[in-house]
Amino acid sequence: MASKRVVLSDVAQMAGLSKATVSRYLNHSIVLPQQTVQRIEDAINTLGYRANSLARRLSMGGSETIGLVLPDITNPFFAELADAAEETASQHNYSLVLCVTRNNLEKECQFIRWLDTRQVDGLLFATNRPDNGQLCAELKGHQHVVLIDEDVPGCDVPKVFSDNVHGGEMATRALIGAGHQRIAFVGGPNELMSVRERHQGYRRALLQNGLVYDPSLVRYGDYSRQFGRQALEQLLALPAPPSAIFAASDFLALGLLDGLRAKGLSAPEAMSLVGFDDAIYSDLITPRLSTIRQSARELGITAVERLLQLFDQDEEIPTISRIPVEWISRDSIARWRGKL
């Protein structure tokens, strides 16, 4: 037969106090004589009482829990971000609950509404789906939200992004430095801020180095491996195909490599490639991928810090925080030696 669950009234009875007094002690809302405190603690230890921490926190106006909303936890980039956010939240005595949306608008809105029910005190929110205005409307009026990695246009909350423009410049300059002049850009949806900014850096590097910007070398689509392969086929079919490609994500670069292999070609001999992210597999594939490292860890840490500043409301918070990026040189770039 299962033992009876110990409740607050059992502790109060053993300590010889009212239930309200014990409850206020556990909520840190009353100062008691040391002898009284000892009676309560002795009763708790003797009975093995475990308080319902969520209920206690809710009664005090908060859950001491942060929600982390991510589109895809199978992506190593988001997994690293989540690990850093949880560690930082824990250091500040907050729990972190992971909310995976798979870029489903209904799920995104569901997690935002957790703020209304106080299931979480605040949200770290990431999406890589272009917003049609619904997500912005849902976020409107919520103060304890920090956007990570990707923007939701029109949303007036703190935002933590990587320095996408500088990353796009560095990637393109590396290819230019290897002698390439016809350099293509393959990105995700054109509506996404990260894609537009990385393209901006790409275009800026071309023009600053006296090269012609050719829109026919630009391809927008899904942030998917399949689109990377499709884009490679389109670019190779051009009358004057590129000799190098800057992919706006490492995942797109995998698709480009798939497309090359399907045609019996390889990188960097047939095509030099640069990615963006420095995903965990970038150093494991053949060729090892040259890429732009954006620190998922720093994104997670900074986002938690911004949210805690929102809670405190005792200092000015930057509207946008930019995380520096870093050039990682590996094996996927070769000097340009002529036509394909």
From TrEMBL:
GO terms for molecular function: DNA-binding transcription factor activity; transcription cis-regulatory region binding. Keywords: DNA-binding, Repressor, Transcription, Transcription regulation. Pfam families: LacI, Peripla_BP_1. It comes from the Bacteria. Transmembrane segments: none annotated. CDD domains: HTH_LacI, PBP1_LacI_sugar_binding-like. InterPro entries: Cro/C1-type_HTH, HTH_LacI, Lambda_DNA-bd_dom_sf, Peripla_BP/Lac1_sug-bd_dom, Peripla_BP_I. Residues 6-60 form the HTH lacI-type domain. Residues 8-50 form the HTH cro/C1-type domain. This is LacI family DNA-binding transcriptional regulator.
